[in-house]
Design goal:
The chain is of the alpha/beta class. The protein has 13 helices and 14 strands. The chain has helices at about 5-20, 50-65, 85-95, 125-135, 145-150, 160-170, 170-190, 205, 225-230, 230-255, 270-280, 335-345, 365-370, and strands at about 30-35, 45, 50, 70-75, 100-105, 115-120, 195-200, 210-220, 265-270, 290-300, 315-320, 325-330, 355-360, 360-365. Strands 4-1-5-8-6-7-9 form a seven-stranded mixed beta sheet, sandwiched between helices. The chain has a five-stranded antiparallel beta sheet with strand order 11-12-10-13-14. A hairpin with a 5-residue loop joins β11 and β12. About 45% of the residues are buried.
């Protein structure tokens, strides 16, 4: 192993170590990232300015979270200043964040478009992710002494890019869970139009070595929704939904009022993929693929007894370094997996969802059904 690769691996190991527990003060660290700022105003329509909206919502979210004695809030910006995209994840990593939440707004020419959506860094199209990463990461070469600052990281080297991707793989399920808790709050508590939990190759997400999500609060280009986004009432409600999702996530993974409920929102990149996941035809998938129903995730080791899972049997556990995942049943037939999912929900695991594995490795359901 050459020196550059060794340094790179050590860099990743150090960053990972920052995020395996609470900080030194015993608090759960939330990194709130209001998008854009300063000379970068974001998307603007109908006098609705993205950078101002997301800053207001982030600050309101932070106020709510800081009322929790075991939560510490760190902002990538707390005023109208420009912050480089890559610097946002650097702040998150240096501060040892437990979660990274980037807040944005949508804006398009179609004035009727509306709704909230939440993104995670997806791995279903690895080549696309790597290509985007190479392009976005090349920005660091403009900085002085970048080789020293980034411990040998080379934006053009495949092993560097793969290293970033592999690190995000450790957090993908937790990121989906956090995203879904927030998105469910928008959908069920606030009754906002649900555009779903999706995946996308955002540098600001795959540069942060912790569970990370990017929230699109709504469309500033929609007159009605834009008015809601700029209103104090709307900003407060959105902040409450975000804070509630983060607190619920923290309680589940790090203690508190722990819940066994997990996520139900589908992850997809397009409407067609959502339809494919939710309306898949009966079929036995390609060799090596199996489906399971994930019903819980906990830092605790639970005995695989029916009494611990609302009467369900055939429970299995996947032990992780920090989080243990619990599954109900397994099958190579997606339709059968849907039946198992319905059984789990009927037993009270209302946020259960289907996961896929190929040859023992976790893959997206979308990929499994291709």
């Amino acid at each position: 192993m050459n020196r550059r690769v060794a340094n790179l691996l050590m860099f990743f190991i150090c960053l990972f170590a920052l995020n395996t527990s609470f900080g030194q003060n015993g608090k759960f660290k939330v990194i709130l990232d209001p998008g854009h700022g300063g000379k970068d105003s974001g998307t603007n329509h109908l006098s609705n300015v993205e950078k101002d909206i997301v800053l207001a919502v982030a600050l309101e979210t932070g106020k709510i979270l800081q009322n929790q004695k075991d939560i510490e809030v760190i902002y990538t910006r707390d005023k109208d200043v420009f912050v480089e995209v890559k610097q946002r994840s650097v702040i998150a990593n240096e501060k040892g964040g437990n979660v990274f939440v980037s807040i944005h707004c949508n804006g398009v020419e179609n004035a009727s478009a509306s709704g909230t959506e939440t993104f995670v860094m997806g791995l279903s199209k690895n080549k696309s992710n790597l290509d985007v990463a190479k392009k976005e990461n090349s920005v660091i070469m403009m900085e002085n002494d970048y080789k020293t600052k980034y411990a040998g990281f080379d934006p053009k080297a495949p092993e560097s890019i793969i290293g970033l991707t592999l690190m995000q793989e450790d957090y993908i399920h937790q990121s989906i869970d956090l995203a879904s808790r927030v998105q469910n709050g928008f959908t069920y508590d606030l009754k906002r139009k649900n555009r779903g939990v999706k995946q996308g190759p955002f540098w600001v997400l795959h540069g942060a070595f912790m569970p990370s999500i990017l929230i699109e609060l709504g469309f500033v280009s929609n007159a009605e929704e834009g008015a809601y986004l700029t209103s104090k009432k709307g900003q407060r409600e959105l902040a409450e939904a975000i804070a509630k999702g983060i607190i619920d996530y923290k309680n589940t993974y790090y203690g508190g009022n722990t819940s066994t409920n997990f996520i139900s929102a589908p992850i997809a990149e397009t409407k067609e993929e959502v339809k494919k996941v939710t309306e898949a035809p009966a079929a036995v998938t390609k060799s090596g693929v199996i489906f399971k129903v994930q019903i819980a995730a906990s830092s605790k080791v639970l005995e695989l007894l029916p009494k611990n899972f609302n009467g369900l049997t055939n429970i299995s556990m996947e032990k992780g370094a920090k989080i243990n995942k619990y599954f109900y049943q397994e099958t190579a037939d997606y339709d059968q997996a849907q039946k198992y999912l319905n059984e789990a929900k009927a037993k009270g695991h209302t946020s259960a969802f289907i996961v896929a594995y190929k040859n023992g490795k976790s893959i997206s359901v979308t990929e499994a059904l291709k």
